[in-house]
Amino acid sequence: MTQQRPGPLRPALVGGIAAGVLTSVPFLGCFCCLWIVGGAMLAASLYAKDSPVSLTAGDGAIVGIFAGIIAAVTTSVLSLPLQAMNREFARKIMEQVSQWFQNVPPEWDTWLQRSARGTTPAVFLFGLVVTAAVFSVFGALGGVIGTSLFGKKRTPPAAGSPPVQEVRDETPQNPSDRQP
Q1: Residues 61 and 8 sit within 8 Å (Cβ to Cβ)
Q2: pLDDT tens digit string along 14-70?
Q3: In a domain, 43, yes or no
Q4: Distance (Å, rounded) from C-alpha 44 to C-alpha 170?
Q5: I want to staple 11 with a disulfide (CB 3.0 to 4.6 A). Which of 47, 132, 133, 161 is the partner?
Q6: Spatial separation of the C-alpha atoms in residues 18 and 21, rounded to whole Å
């Protein structure tokens, strides 16, 4: 009788939300790819803990992809209130750069004025799709790593089977030591 595996959605939600929150925090978001890999590893660990059988790398990749997509949605939603602060930070950096260098293109001012208006729904959705694609790749990587670390289950020997003995290779390593 085969044992039923749990669904990957609940572990992916936990890992994805954790990674999405850490990615959306200012200054911690600099390590966004690391957080996504770590969140997917967390999801794979939780998935392996709930699973009665060993997981494959494909199982880890699937739960990691789900965690990456959930992290992308979480990051996109949580970053909306922080956009005004990020725009102001970028404006101050651009002012400093224009004071340091004389050859700053005049288009920078136009770009800053356009970005001060906010994000349109089309830009938000495009950013969400791109972020989900990138995060799902890093999530798959983290899921495979997490499965390789946490996904193996030790199976007890079947009842009535003899204990497994270690077989040693007695062949000599040096070809000159072999007997004809």
Answers
A1: no
A2: 999 999 999 988 778 788 889 999 999 999 999 999 888 888 999 999 999 999 999
A3: yes
A4: 40
A5: 47
A6: 5
Task: Indicate the DSSP class of residue 35.
Answer: H
Please give the residue range of the domain that contains residue 108.
Answer: 81-118
Burial of 98 (0-12, 13-18, 19+ CB in 10 A): middle
Q: Which residue has the tokens 């990020």?
A: 86
CB within 8 A of 122, min separation 6: which ones?
none
Measured CA to CA, the distance from residue 9 to residue 16 in angstroms comes to 10
Q: Let me know whether 68 and 139 are in one domain.
A: yes
Q: Is residue 166 one of the residues assigned to a domain?
A: no
Q: What is the pLDDT of residues 106-144, one digit of tens each?
A: 676 676 666 666 677 888 899 999 999 999 999 999 999
Helices 32-50 and 9-24: angle between axes, nearest 10 degrees = 160
Phi and psi at 105, nearest 5°, equal -65, 140
DSSP string, 109-136: HHHHHHHTT---HHHHHHHHHHHHHHHH
